[in-house]
Amino acid sequence: ECEKKSGYPQGNNYVKKLDIKTLEACKTTCDQNLTCWGWGFEIASSICYHYSAVEGFASSDGYFGGSCYVSNPPYPDRLSLRTFRQQALDKHNEYRKIHCSEALKLNNDLNDISQDYAEKIAGFGKKPPNYSGIRMENLYYQIGDYKLSGSYPVTIWYSEKDKYNWLYPDFSKTSHFAKIIWKGTKELGIGRAFSSDNGEISSIIQLYQYDMGS
């Protein structure tokens, strides 16, 4: 659950929610939004801000706000989808920085498409739809380990770097790595789904879809 304290988050990425007029509603809607990492409510003007990135916190008597990410334990038995997505995004951007690629941002629409895709794949036998607007995707599948962190699949994909020929690129064996660092990509969507057999978790599906940007 989002924390609440006097002051407001600091960050360059925020969305002003003019239709949210109460402090509690501002906090609650941020907590329910998987891409909202912090909230701030300006008391005098009744303006709600939702932050997609939180870089710090400023004290102020005229605001209430807080982070919605710090309250999530880093590795609980099963990570919340919000935490999983944040870990995956952070790992992408860690690697992209090495290659001078612009940091990615999570996109709500891409998240929804990715989640729908992942759930259909996890349904065994359900053919996922063809999303013509998405031009790249990475898929990770694993049996049994439902405690998997969001950063782990990204690390596995990035390990293809050792096979990448920078003079004569061959994407047949290094496509996952190339998609992680692709400079034209601006936004990222992440989906995760579980399949089960008689109530026992048997596999995890993660689907990452990219907006190429160019």
Essential attributes:
214 residues, alpha+beta, Hepatocyte Growth Factor, Pathogenesis-related Protein p14a, 2 domains, 5-stranded antiparallel sheet, 4-stranded mixed sheet, 5 helices, elongated, CAP_dom, CRISP-related, SCP domain-containing protein, SCP_GAPR1-like
Shape: elongated
The secondary structure category is alpha+beta
The pLDDT mean sits at: 76
* N-to-C order of helices and strands: EEEHEEEEHEHEHHEE
Helix content: 25-40%
CATH class of the largest domain: Alpha Beta
Q: Give me the CATH superfamily of the largest domain.
A: CAP
What count of structural domains? Answer: 2
**Low-pLDDT windows of residues:** 70-76, 198-203
Count of individual helical segments: 5
Largest sheet: 5 strands, antiparallel
Strand order of the largest sheet: 1-7-4-5-3
Tally of strands: 11
> How large a portion of the residues is in β-strands, by DSSP E?
25-35%
Terminal Cα span: 38 Å
The CATH architecture designation of the largest domain is 3-Layer(aba) Sandwich
C-alpha-based Rg, rounded:
19 Å
Query: According to CATH, what is the topology of the largest domain?
Result: Pathogenesis-related Protein p14a
Domain SCP: 83-213
Pfam family, one: CAP
InterPro entries: CAP_dom (IPR014044), CAP_sf (IPR035940), CRISP-related (IPR001283), SCP_GAPR1-like (IPR034113)
Organism: Rotaria sordida
